Amino acid sequence: MLKILLRGVLLMLLTGAVNATPAFVFTAIPDQDETQLKQRFQKVADYLQQELDTEVRFIPVKSYAASITAFRNNQVQLAWFGGLSGVQARELVPGSRAVAQGVEDPVFKSFFIANTSAGLSPADHLPESLRGLTFTFGSKGSTSGRLMPEYNLREQFGISPDELFSRVGFSGNHSRTIALVESGAYQVGALNYKVWETAVAEGKVDTSKVQVIWETPTYPDYQWTVRGDLDAAFGEGFTARLEKALLGMKDPELLNSFPRSGFIPASNQDFEPVRKVAKQVGLLD
Amino acid sequence: MSSTKILSLPRYRWPGGVRTSLWFLLIALICLPFADLEISSLDPWSEMGRLLQGVISPQLMDSGLIFEALLATLAFAFAGVALAVVCGFLLALAFHHTFIRAICALTRSIHELFWALIFLQFFGLHPLTGLLAIAVPYSGIFARMYAEILGQVPKHPEYALPAGSGFFSAILYTRLPQAWPHLVSYTSYRLECGIRSSAILGFVGLPTLGYYLESSFSQGYYPEVAGLMILFYLLIATKKVWLRRWTLPLFLLGAPFFMGTGLPIIWGNVGRFFSEDIVPAPLRSGEANWQSLADWAGTIVIDQALPGVWNTLLLSQIALVVTGLFALLFFPLINRYCFGVAGRFPGHVFLVIARSTPEYLLAYILLQLLGPSMLPAVIALAIHNGALIGYLTGRNSNEIQLRPDAPERQLDRYFYELLPRSYPAFLSFMLYRWEVIMRETAILGILGIHTIGFFVDSAIQEIRFDVALLLILVAAMMNILVDLLARRIQRHI
Amino acid sequence: MTALAIQSDSLGYGAQRVLEPVSLDIRTGEHLILLGKSGCGKSTLLNHIYTENRNECALIPQGLGLVESLSVFHNVYMGCLSRHTVFHNIRNLVWPTPARVAEILPLLERLGLSDKCFSAVADLSGGQQQRVAVARALYQQSSVLLADEPVSALDGPEADRVMSLLGQNFITAVITLHDVDRALRYGQRIIAIQDGKLVLDERAERLTVSTLNEFY
Predict the structure, then answer these.
(1) What separation in angstroms does the CA of A169 have from each of A38, A161, B214, B448?
(2) What is the span of the domain harbouring residue B196?
(3) B31 assigned to some structural domain
(4) Residue A134 to residue B40, Cβ atoms within 8 A
(5) Looking at CB atoms within 10 Å, which of A84, B346, B436, B483 has the fewest?
(6) Are residues B326 and B266 in the same domain?
(7) Residue B5 falls inside a structural domain
(8) Structural domains in chain B (count)
(9) Do B30 and B178 have their domain in common?
(10) CATH fold for domain A109-215
């Protein structure tokens, strides 16, 4: 039995080694419903494969941290990160760069939504009556679902969310946040405004049960980040071709699946505000 | 005269086992006011209704994908358990060394999901991650149980061997043959646990059933959830059909080919993990000193470890007592003195389903229904473990021989015959399960209940593996202490 | 007056026949002793009598049928479970009620067990356990006693004390014994069984130790 096993393990390692011949792999933070993500990024994979003339694979992961780890471990070479996850990933991988972002991403925002039973109405600041309610973030590593909402809550109330609310949860992703606040499992939640707008437009939200009560000031969010060592693995000029391909995504169907109106260049420097906020909130050292 | 005699009568005392149980009950009652047991969901019934609707109209998504996931679930279970059997057996032979015992205690006190999260950091989504996540803790478990089983074998055959027979030959010829049936039956039970563990590993990204369960669940596709669950139950329920002496080698040989390819391992990551990631942050930066390290550890202990430990204790003590109550309620369902053959059938079905549903999965479902609090976790732990202990106690109670004039009324029979006769066995099952419940309680934190797993998950999400590892070690220490305590109590009853 | 009328086809376990068909009348007030070697079928006959007449009989079975993890008190109390409500039974299990203790304690005193009232049966010696089973039968207060070797683990004087206690407290009794001498002292009617057949059915005063010894 031992021999069989050893042979099996050896085989696995060998197949691993064989597979190491470059297939270009990318991932994305699992920030909303998986089916949607798979559809969207399969389109991206097909597009990139065509543009780059190499095999391109999309690997879905189960958590923000897993996408960062895969990127850091060089098991994926490109990732669609949020503001915070991008900053975290680039800190861990010297030489990696933010190369492209959606037209909307430099001025991204979060929505605070509330179940109508909580009796909150839309305003230009967060109401005092938020104290003592139940509240859910999205994923622990989300920019629009965690970092920026937490930052704004701390700014306005001067205390941590744990002290402000009677119960604080993490729904896991933006779609779940809508579902949980709509069902009343939590009274208030915060999420990515794009996910909200798309869900409302598609009629997936019962707006008689849940509504937006506040929107945050804008901040930079999602971006495509690549590793710095791509050219060494995939040939000279690969990164440049990749950048061009990402910025050149013009197919409306593809853009709609994000949803973004187009892609523009990005640099690491663009996300400096996110890094500062993350330090302030204590999510970065 | 006779009245003075009655006065000198010793006061009635509850039997030792009952007194121990009452202490546990008292502790759980004290924990209750501190525990958050609210049903925070506004309308649990509508969600429950949707789930039930899904159950009556189960659906399978892409059957090819699901078949692959099913095979991967089995592959990880078989390969992981097989590797653990080999390692566990070798470790069992050296189990008298304190060092080996300590290593085994440590490996088994860390939950397989925690192991998976650790291996994910440097192997990534590679089959080795899933394989080791099962094999490492199971080796520790096997080592202890195998050592116990081998230790209980009669010693005289070994004693009678000629001098110089050699350590291994002696074991092969005397202890192993005598212990064989017990070893096989325990290993087979553990294989079932392995299938459950393997399925659950999908929740962190390995390509097993849990992967698709999590996806369907989090998107509320309940018909798909129901389809997957039914598939899972069928897999466990038909184990006797597909797992035969002659199919076992096929499964073992086939296992390495069905774990998926994942992403290639890059060995540099392994070195980095051990030399950088898990080194406490203050030691990584240049000016390391004891003060900064103490501050670092102090902050983590006060802000994360203590609240995590406190909540884990609260939840696990309450869950333990509810588990016991459930088990005592459940076991008559399969007792031959309570129901006829036909009457026991539904009980058997219920107990099989409840005990083959991993508590992690049950808690996940109940969290969706009842909203986030400790309540769904308590119910999930109690249903799964209550059904398991109920089954074991019930099986045990079927060996009881009632006297011809045993009470005829069912309740009299339960309280005066079955319960007292089954109680000692029940109690030792419970004490053994205490550590398991504690370990599971910790892991449920990943689902958002603020037990220690919550803080471990947070640290991993924040890419702070030094913190995560420290917290995992705290959780491990808790389990080891509970294990020691349980064995002490067991000896004193 | 007939207390028990026994009519049976041949008895046995499965295909194995242990006892030939039996027809037997036991009169009220009669104390009947079943004698015979072990395995001759006397326990089988006794169990048959019990299953046919559960409601009138108190039983002391061969294995005693005690719940070892419960106290002596609770085991004795079990003789009367059917006379109380389930609620009372549960209450009495959780904590002994003074009224029941007052009933049971004198009984234990006569059997020399009063100091063991609240001890677990598991902690008692074989002889003590046998006396607990006797106490349970006495507490049941039925008119008929069926006892299978009720004094096998007791020494001479102790055994005699228990036998006379049983004799005084039951109007009718069927007791299996293997001690011929004791059978003659306490029985009014003796039945001997050999190879599954009733080979002797006689008033005790007409028998002597030597005639009975033939059956061993």
Answers:
(1) 26, 10, 18, 7
(2) 58-277
(3) yes
(4) yes
(5) B346
(6) no
(7) no
(8) 2
(9) no
(10) D-Maltodextrin-Binding Protein; domain 2 (3.40.190)
Q: Would you place residue B32 in the very low, low, confident or very high pLDDT band (cuts 50, 70, 90)?
A: very high
B12 touches chain C (CB under 8 A): yes
The set of residues, in sequence order, having a beta carbon less than 8 Å from that of C52 and lying 6+ positions away, is C6
Work out the minimum CA distance from B177 to partner chain A, whole angstroms. 18
Among B residues 356-375, those touching chain A with beta carbons less than 8 Å apart: 371-373
Confidence of residue B466 (pLDDT cuts 50, 70, 90): very high
Question: Please, are residues C71 and C113 in contact by the beta-carbon 8 Å criterion?
Answer: no
Q: Are residues B256 and B118 in the same domain?
A: yes
Chains C and A touch (3+ CB pairs under 8 A): no
> pLDDT tens across C105-123, in order?
999 999 999 899 999 999 9
Residues B385, B462, single domain; the answer is yes
Residue from the list C70, C89, C95 with its beta carbon closest to the beta carbon of B412: C89
Q: Which residues pair with A264 in a beta bridge?
A: A101
Contact B15 C86 (CB under 8 A): no
In a 13 Å sphere around the CA of A226, the CA atoms on its Cβ side amount to: 22
What is the pLDDT, as a whole number, of residue C162? 94
End-to-end distance of chain B based on CA atoms, in angstroms? 37
CA-nearest residue of chain B to A68? B463
Name all chains with 3 or more CB-CB pairs below 8 Å to chain B. A, C
CB contact at 8 A, B479 and B435: yes
Q: Give me the domains of chain C, ranges plus CATH numbers.
A: 2-213 (3.40.50.300)
Å from C171 to nearest chain B CA? 20
**Chain B residue with minimal CA distance to C114?**
B9
CB contact under 8 A, B404 and C70: no
**Chain segment B323-353, per-residue pLDDT in tens:** 999 999 999 999 999 999 999 999 999 999 9
* pLDDT digits 0-9 by tens, C11-58: 776 667 778 888 888 999 999 999 888 777 888 888 889 888 888 889
Q: Give residue-wise pLDDT tens across range B355-368.
A: 999 999 899 888 87
For residue B280, whether the previous peptide bond is cis, meaning omega lies within 30 degrees of 0, is no
Q: Is B403 within 8 Å of C93 when comparing Cβ atoms? A: no
Q: Is residue B8 part of a domain?
A: no
Question: Which residues of chain B does C117 touch, with a Cβ-Cβ cutoff of 8 Å?
Answer: 9-10
Residue pair C42/C16 in contact (Cβ under 8 Å)? The answer is no
Residues B271 and B127 in one domain: yes
Q: Lowest-pLDDT range, A145-159, A262-276, B164-178? A: B164-178
Would you call B245 an interface residue with chain A, using a CB distance cutoff of 8 Å? no
- Buried residues in B210-232 as b, exposed as e (16+ CB within 10 A): bbbbbbbbbbbbbbbbbbbbebb
ipTM for this prediction: 0.86
